[in-house]
Structures are given as structure tokens and as C-alpha cells.
Amino acid sequence: MALINDFMSLIYPRHCEACGTNLLKHEEFICNLCLINLPKSNYHIQLTNELGYVFAGRIPLQNALCFYLFEKSGRVQKLLHAIKYQNQKELAQFIGKLYAKDLVESEILETIDIIIPIPLHAKKLKLRGYNQSEWFAKGIANELNIKQDATLLKKINATNTQTNKKKFERWENVEGVFELQNADILKNKHILIVDDVITTGATIEAAWQAIKNVEGIKVSVISIAFAAKA
Length: 230
Description:
This protein has helices at 2-11, 32-37, 50-54, 75-85, 89-106, 122-128, 132-144, 167-174, 202-211, and strands spanning 61-69, 114-117, 147-148, 153-155, 178-180, 190-198, 218-226. By secondary structure, it is an alpha/beta fold. Helix 5 (89-106) runs parallel beside helix 7. The longest helix is centred in the middle third of the chain and has 18 residues, at 89-106. The relative contact order is 0.16.
């Protein structure tokens, strides 16, 4: 099997999804140089951070976390593009596992009871074939041994892409689009809402509106990337 894999690598070389260089035999999805140099946020050790400020006065978050900081035309954008538009769902899971290794050392998520990915509308899910946020959440959940439930939050209205929308337009686009399926499961629970990328926080806030009346609920959020200047 190893010989077959080596032979296939010669014919169809695997490339780094961040920079495009050919991957070495032991590398997976992202080359070692990019793993070292990708712009990590380190928000898991900076509990007062810019992402948290986005939700100040809007959602009473326990923690606001993201793995990477987004820059237009940068390597993180290339990763997100591969995940969303090039069928690289396993890349999302791989990044989730990477981030979980940092998170387990900080113990910041040790009180999380349930991980809930931001859902896609059924039409978009059918078209894309997978939910990238769910795959990112899967990587975190499996590594940290935390329950993930992708059925509790449902997107009941189809929306247009948030890309290129202004802040207020983003909120209008997602207002009232999520519906909680079983409030009793979340009573007195600390949940982690997972998205692929956070910009204005409108999607997360819309999810919060659907769950905010659950008794005793606590919420943290996490994403692959945060686009601070979007």
C-alpha cells in the first residue's frame, strides 16, 4: 500500500491547500511551513480579545474563539475557499483537530456540554453535499470527546451569501432564519456554537436569538477564522 501511495503521489502530487506547494510524504493538507506561519489568533489564551468585542452587548458569551485571523487573498482565505467550494470537508475536520490540540492544553472548553454547528439550509446542504461548519466541529468534538449535535438548530429560511454585504445587510439577511428543535436538551447546558468564519457576528447572533430563552443556557462561540476588518 505504501508503494502504491508513493507512486500515486508522483503522478498526482498532493499540494498544500494554503500555499500550493507539493506536500511531503508525512504532511497532510497543509505543509509544515504553513502550519508554523499561518496567523493564529491565540484567543484561547487571550480571553479578552477582538472577537469577543464583536459580541459585546449583543450576546453574553462565556468565550469567543477562532483558530486563525483572516486576511483577504491570504493563506487562510485559500483554506476557507478549499473547504467551502472545492469539496475539502476533510480539511475542515483536520483544522478542527489541530485547534483542539491547542484548546485541550488551555482547558478553556472543559465545561462545554454540547457542540452545535451553524446549520445550512436544506437546499444549500443538498447542493454542496456537506456542512463545512459541521466538519470543523467534528474535528474538535472527536479530539476533545465532547458530544456534537447537528440536529438541534435548523435553518428554516434560505439566505443569500453574506459575502460583500454590509453589516446591517448581514443582520437582515439572517434575521429569524434559525429554529431550535429541542429546548429541553439544552437546559442548564454550556453549548459551543461553531461557524466556519465570523465577520460581523450576524449569523451567530441569529442563532443566539433562537436559543436565548432556554433556561440556564450558557454559550461560547468558535470558528476557523475571524475576519476582523470585513
